[in-house]
Predict the structure of DNA-binding SARP family transcriptional activator.
Amino acid sequence: MLTDSTPAVTVHCLGNFRLEINGRPVAHWRAGKARALFQYLLVNRDRLIHRDRLHEVLWPDSDDRSSSSLKVAVHAVRRVLGTYDRDDGFRLIHQDHGYMLQAQNAWVDLEEFERAFQRARDAWALKDHQRALEWFQTTADLYTGDFLASETGDWINEQRQWAQGLALRALAVLRADSLEREDWAAAMHWCRRIIALDPYHEDTYQTLMMIHGELGELGRARDWYELCRRRLSKDLDAEPAERTERILASLTRRRNRPLVPALAGPSSAF
């Protein structure tokens, strides 16, 4: 049941795209580019986007700016939105040779994700590290998948890389904090999330190797080394860094010395 505090419009862009209006999912779009148009205007909501830019985004291989395709897509979006009984200020406006999407009562996960990251940065700048860590945790929780994971397009790839970058920075801080507290289970969790986003993040493989070495799990340390080596070799035609090799050699010799505490603390993530 919706309450007065429930957003009339809920949009998930991180992971697979989902739109709900007054608690009802929108599952059918009446034109091939209608959903893509809505997604682009949503990410740029409350901004007027010139029709030439929309043509460029939606039909990048076409030079025909006089085509009626955009009008068809706009009409389809309006029909989709018009099937829902709303009082939410959700409007697609035509103005000055462009279009603007307005949604006064909307919750968009991408916006909440970016807002959480900025609040974490602000708290960190004020040296309120505990509050910053809470916001970085919120940032990580909101990142449930890549931006519009099942969609393609140059603007989508650009936005996807931006969101991934913010997520990686938040995860790096959380990882460093876990290492500083010697919470190895949490540190491994954040490391694995980092690798899921960036499978070539060699520093994270090094961290996992050292954690397992600290725990006496030399086989697991070697497993991470081998995974790192295979990915670098197969996908990047590269070899592990000298430091990675040194860590493996040290662990293989079973040197009983603390390795993990030598890692950088949380502040290094910035």
